Amino acid sequence: MKSVITTTISARDAAGRFPSRSDLESVQGNIQRSAARLEAAEKISAGHEGVVKEAGDACFAKYTYLKTSGEAGDSQDKVNKCYRDIDHYMRLINYSLVVGGTGPLDEWGIAGAREVYRALNLPASAYIAAFAYTRDRVCVPRDMSAQAAVEFIGALDYVNSLS
User: Fold this and answer.
1) Whether the predicted pLDDT of 163 surpasses 70
2) Does 59 belong to an annotated binding site?
3) Which of 19, 22, 86, 96 is most buried when burial is the number of CB atoms within 10 A of its CB?
């Protein structure tokens, strides 16, 4: 799984070189932020049902047309699938926080997502709205520490930047 550490080592190994000072500083920074990432991952794990529900509710509140006939949320089954997708991405964000890199999102979440959404007529903007709501809702210190929030928000923004 891709992380700052595995990416650094793989690149240097492919070049037949030792990691540079800059490489090691990057790895060290990643390790120093690990406690904050793990805190964010723990908080997400503990309350993911509520986070997913609020994100999905915000999405459907912003895009009310999604529940009209022929749209992505025109039946309870389709609405449930939207919540399932949000939950899936939250898990991938959680995994990315744990490993300290975007590997889980890149490998399991982003690849092909645009094509699937287009094929199923699912608007990416609705998912972006759900994650933007989650990002904007994070409250320090109610939800997590400031550094944990920075890590979590960074992961949410990463997902939104690729959509």
Assistant:
1) no
2) no
3) 96
